[in-house]
């Protein structure tokens, strides 16, 4: 006799109303009816529902889902291959987003328990809260964000000054390295990238080689970070990304 609409809703994690709607628009008509006229779903109906939910999860509108599933020339295996490819691409995209969300906490580097006068003294005309507010909206709630905040909340004006001095020194040395024609995969460039990674770990959160790779990509993709690094020397953001990747390649067991 197949499965009732309530049972199928429970299996699939959808509402009974959703199944009724799919029936009404012809997307998923149950293969059987009980003597009382109640919907009964068979195994083929469940297979189709699974396909529908896959495509819906991938963002396809219902009319496109219907067109795909009702294509007389479509091979069921082709649907699975298409879904596998789409899901794989989505997973890769989400993994990159997760890396940025979880680990790109450099946007929360300024902050924090300083008076307005002290912030101006430390950061000049830069507004440390500009990135901090956005970081909280985008990444608040992650453990890395929490760790970065915990550390930053303890820093004094002198701590921020030491940090800024480290950044300035690193930038001057990286500028000289590029002036000398060092390639991103050169020893000196990789050593500078490693120093950059350790700076993040020391001041904000544990920055693994994998995380560092994601940051390198962000320094080029995000205009604000690109502008920051390129202000040290034009092209530095792109060069640094290459050095970060090359440095991570020296540590494949940890990257």
Question: Notable features of this structure?
Answer:
255 residues, mainly alpha, 3-stranded antiparallel beta sheet, 13 helices, 3 strands
Describe what you observe in this structure.
The chain is mainly α and 255 residues long. 69% of the residues lie in helices and 3% in strands. The protein contains 13 helices and three strands; from the N terminus they run βααββααααααααααα. A hairpin with a 5-residue loop joins strand 2 and strand 3. Helix 6 runs parallel beside helix 9 and helix 10 packs across helix 13. The longest helix is centred in the middle third of the chain and has 28 residues. 24% of the residues are buried.
How is the secondary structure organized here?
Blueprint: E1 3-4, H1 5-12, H2 16-24, E2 32-33, E3 39-41, H3 43-57, H4 62-69, H5 76-103, H6 116-123, H7 128-139, H8 143-154, H9 157-179, H10 187-203, H11 209-221, H12 223-232, H13 236-249
Antiparallel strand pairs: 1-3, 2-3
Helix pairs in contact: 1-2, 3-4, 5-11, 6-9, 9-10, 10-13, 11-12, 11-13
Rg is: 27 Å
SSE class: mainly alpha
Query: What percent of residues are in strands?
Result: under 5%
Shape: elongated
Please estimate the helix content: 55-70%
The beta-strand count equals 3
